[in-house]
């Protein structure tokens, strides 16, 4: 009976619009070039997960990363200029509930946090 009342429906839509305005949008921080981002995202799809991969690399756990995955990581390891770019971006950007790293950047940051990650991959 009340569902067809246009005044009631208009109030509901108005309240929903106000709620949408109040909620701030989360911004994803992107630093890498689009082509490089795609390469990393394709690689991530073949790996266990960002943090899990970094943890497996830290502990050199061959049960969680097989030889093909290690080779894939080695082929896509960030070059020195990319590492410097990410470290500079890490200093410049504040990460909080409204600003988060995008998937590729988050993965690269977790990878370069592993001590001597290139040596571990070899």
TrEMBL record:
Pfam families, alphabetized: FH2 (PF02181)
SUPFAM superfamilies: Formin homology 2 domain (FH2 domain) (SSF101447)
Superkingdom of origin organism: Eukaryota
Stretches assigned to the FH2 domain: 1-122
Protein name as catalogued: FH2 domain-containing protein
Lineage summary: Eukaryota, Sar, Alveolata, Dinophyceae, Gonyaulacales
């Amino acid at each position: 009976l009340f569902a067809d009342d246009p005044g009631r429906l208009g109030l509901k839509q108005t309240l929903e619009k106000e709620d949408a305005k109040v909620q701030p949008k989360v911004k994803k921080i992107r630093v890498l070039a689009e082509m490089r981002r795609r390469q990393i995202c394709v690689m991530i799809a073949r790996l266990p997960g960002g943090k899990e991969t970094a943890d497996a690399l830290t502990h050199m756990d061959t049960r969680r990363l097989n030889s093909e995955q290690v080779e894939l990581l080695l082929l896509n390891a960030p070059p020195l200029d990319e590492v410097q770019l990410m470290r500079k971006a890490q200093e410049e950007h504040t990460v909080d509930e409204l600003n988060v790293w995008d998937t590729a950047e988050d993965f690269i940051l977790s990878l370069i946090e592993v001590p001597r990650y290139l040596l571990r991959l070899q």
